[in-house]
Protein 1
Amino acid sequence: MPGHPSASERRQSVRTGVVWDGLQGVLDAPVAFQERQAHIIDIGGGTGGFAVPLAELGHRVRVIDPSPDALASLDRRAAERGVGDRVTGQQGDLSDLSEVVEADSADLVLCHGVLEVVDDPAAALQQISSVLRSGGHLSLLVAQRHAAVVARAMAGHFQAARELLDGDAQASGRGHRFTQQEVSGLLADAGFEVTLVQAVRVFADLVPGSLLDLEPGAAASLVELERAVASRPEYLPLATQLHVLARA
Ligand SMILES: C[S@@+](CC[C@H](N)C(=O)[O-])C[C@H]1O[C@@H](n2cnc3c(N)ncnc32)[C@H](O)[C@@H]1O
């Protein structure tokens, strides 16, 4: 309920506030989507944490995800929020995106928390590029490697931290983690122009959840702090995730 967010909604806003700011910039840009719905693909969109609010803003969102359970939850959530007619769920995989989405058709593709788990991130970005119309946007959210090294070391997983330090941890079965330079290189190779890079969850994962639950106003203050550092390059290596906006 607006004005009375639950504890889980407060924590969610701390984790995603900066990402929403970036997305809002794309959707509100002059001559963007004021007068027409955007056609949005949310690849690996899961239960609709982004897709459903985007539909509530008036856009058409197609979620493509391999998990039938996630898609069932998505349908329920979209129906509960009254946007079932603007949200479509479909089983599919990022690696085969161009087989289920028409070429050059999407205004915006969300790829949040998925590039980490595919075998070939470079090929996956090519797939996304092929379904975006010229000038369309990619919103990419990926796990950032330096913070992951620190998190593993702090948890006492020193060997895992050491393995991650010098490169890809896919070999250890934990998925890819990316530096900003790696993401920028992959995007350039796939023909994208990077328009924004943001640090996401610089502090959020370090703050005890109980503090956000018990201290009045703490979650809102933390969201403001996350916003204040999101575009400062010196905080990028500390961020749990990188949010990158790029134009096709
Ligand atoms: C970490 S969740 C992120 C969910 C959502 N994008 C978000 O940010 O809230 C990862 C999602 O990717 C989906 N997924 C896993 N492997 C995938 C693949 N190869 N292609 C597309 N989606 C995949 C999972 O089913 C899951 O819904």
Protein 2
Amino acid sequence: MFNNLSKGLAGIVRKLVTGTNVDKQAIEDILTDIRKLLLESDVDVELANQLVANIRRKCFEEKVPSGMTLREYMLKVIYEELVRLLGDKPSGFSGKRIMFVGLFGSGKTTTIGKLGRYFVKQNLKPALVALDYHRPAAPEQLMQTGKETNIPVYVEESKNPFDAAKNAMQKFQKNNVILFDTAGRSALDAELADELKKLSEIIKPDEVILVIPADLGKVARKQAEEFNKLVGITGVIITKMDGTAKAGGALAATLVTGAKVKFIGTGEKVDDFEPYDPTRFVSRLLGLGDLQTLLEKAKEAEIKKESVEKIAEGNFTLQDFLEQIEAMGKMGPLSQVASMIPGMGMVKMPEGMLEKQEQRLKVFRHIIQSMTKDERQYPDIITSSRVRRIAKGSGRKEEEVRELLNQYNQTKKMMRSLGGMAGMQRGSLKNLAKQFGFKM
Ligand SMILES: Nc1nc2c(ncn2[C@@H]2O[C@H](COP(=O)(O)OP(=O)(O)O)[C@@H](O)[C@H]2O)c(=O)[nH]1
Ligand SMILES: [Mg+2]
């Protein structure tokens, strides 16, 4: 889904995470890339420009929060602006009567089947009502959908949609949700407009859901506005997200009207359907784990800035090392932390490597905890007899104590030899990851 946009954004993020330097020019280059990508995905020019302008302003005019590198800050800003572009909060359904509108072929009937099934899974008792009597095959299709999902369907013998609405509401009094499948046309003409308006007066729907196919692109905005004027839409479901690289257009255009996207359809089958959660959606689009969660957790864990800096300079003690391990521990299991680190999601790690690392860190922690304050501060004083004592105290093997000291010395050497580069990335999570043996 969203293949091009997602691939493109993931590429931009990778560039940002792995680029050697983030300066003014690098930021401008990234902004150019983002704008180009949004336009290619059919996002409105005005919207794309606005998004880029917002990111630029935040990066150049606002102060980068302390404890954050420009790189991380920029990622955060890009993420936030995309979330803003693609909606803010997930939104569910309220009320009993849900009326579906949309042009012919947009996916109304299919979506009603999907949503019906979704309600069944939530232990609700949905019912479906056929209101499209212009096409003979339409009620038939809804009957079929009902059969497949085991949900009752009302079809009016007289083929009068207004009677159908009235009679169905009578019949389905005991059901908790009634889904009304209205007629569509290839365009919203006067006759259809009239019928929908009348139906909406009879049904008095709690929700009016506009169904829009993702491949409609920028036109989605006009359509949403027209339907909204006519019957007042309360939400949108975007279908066929699986079939187009340009889905950004429909999504962004719809949201501009103030409509909330509630669900997205990702295929023809009844389970190809998911609630729309903008923050999760954008994370996925960026190829990141949940960046926001990571940033919050990092703050919670209060990774000590100075000790990170010391590590970056190759000038750190075992005490610093321990603090880092403990901070990482507070952020959750390593696999979880790793999936949240920008860029890490894109790196394939050998199976079991994280678990092994985690185990190793635990051992290191126990060993360091068995050391005296002096030993943690000046590891050079640790002689063989001290190694023996530490091993005994921590219940670990002498070998493991030596391995820790080795790892410490190597890391120190590595960080020193990296010199300038390490300094540049000081404080960054990437650096932290490197510290603990991940390659990014
Ligand atoms: N690939 C894909 N096809 C869909 C999706 N939703 C609906 N369709 C297809 O779009 C066509 C029209 O759907 P239908 O529900 O009959 O549209 P309606 O005229 O608005 O009721 C059918 O062939 C559906 O299988 C979707 O999310 N993905
Ligand atoms: Mg239909």
Protein 3
Amino acid sequence: MASTNAPIYDELFNVLFVIGTILFIGMTALVIYSLIQFRRKPGEEGDGLPIEDNLPLEIFWTAVPAVVILFVGLYSYDIYDRMGGMQILSNDMHSHHSISSQEKVWGGIGSSKQESNTSRDFPINVELTAMQFAFLFNYPKGEIISGELHVPVGQPITMRMESKDVIHAFWVPEFRLKQDVIPGQPTILNFTPTRTGRYPIICAELCGPYHGGMRSTVVVEEPEEYDAWFKKNSKQTEVEL
Ligand SMILES: [Cu+2]
């Protein structure tokens, strides 16, 4: 769990896992019980009871899955909403010049609950370009282009993503974040890393023969380390952070 998004996502996983476990144990127990209880006894030669239907039982086994699936559906929607996925992002949220006023931007997973309380430029804007078979990260403010994503811990990041060729997907398992990267249709991903370290970035959309090698790394650093990296790689001599 290395982003603010991860606990929300893991909550959904845990609930689904508990439901699945209960169903599995219940059904397995019922099968084992029936195998023992209803087996042919010695001396029993006739056919079984000619049972045709059982309305209460049929209502029961239709209603239980219906309720469970309805709950899972509503709950998943709620989790997706809490992750910011249902938000339609207005363009003025993203001040960078390359986003024109006509451009529709959607899919803002992670965009909820992000507030800044420091003087730094927030959120940190990164532009991701995906292509066969690499991810490129552009930091417009420092004119940096990097093959690795560097981010400071505990600070919100807004990443605008677009593909040059086919559909790719930006996936960071430790962040519990995955979002398609589409040609001609920018998508936005917002996240706040919560733990320093190096985590794999994986393309999660079959995009060609070297799809399996389309990987990168996100480096989550202490803010000072990030600032040092940013200054070192920035093309401008003076960068205001
Ligand atoms: Cu790809």
